[in-house]
Here is the input.
Amino acid sequence: MRSISLVFGLALLLPPISPAQAAAQLPGTDVFILRSAEQLQSPHIVTYRVFEWTQTRGRWIFPDVGYYDTGYGRDQIWFTGAGLDMLHARRFDWSQEIYFSQEAGPESTNKRALWVWPVLDTRIGTRLSSQIAAYPVIPLDAAQRWGADVDRAKLEWSFHAHWLVGAGYSGGICSTRTWQSNPFATVTRKTHAGNFELWLQRIDGGAQVQLRYVLVKNRE
Here is the structure.
């Protein structure tokens, strides 16, 4: 909890990104994503960690590689994918990727799966926006079962050029085969060094705080 609060506190001191920079459209980008979550109730364990690196070339998204774990690495998922910017309009964007995932770690059961992963962004007026990322889990071996996951479905309001607040929903079918719902509230700070997004989220048995960081770096 202290580490997440410290990182988000430092983000408040970073210089904001300018509108001209935000609007710049260059042929290729590198996207770096870091995520971590910590349980609010004692013993304040880290519930998951993610690192992902993606390259875009025009409309193509490739390569896209990442790592996810729970339980401090005891259960890991390594994934790689590729995709395409399917639609880019004034008020709507749709990107589509397909990922291959492989489970590892001392508590794994060697699950393998495909994720068919769309991301839908909608701009509602000048200050309101929404984003949905929901996908099916298609098994590639006997250990993996069919599933579905809503990584995020959120609505955000830009009350300042560099600040957003919002609320959303995430959920999915877990190993118990029951649907888990995890609503959240979020605040985002946009800076030169990337976007820092803080979630306060309900989880089974309590709540957690998430820090989600995204850096989009244009390539020459």
Notes: The first strand starts at residue 28 and ends at 39. The mean pLDDT is 91. DSSP finds two helices and 13 strands in the chain.
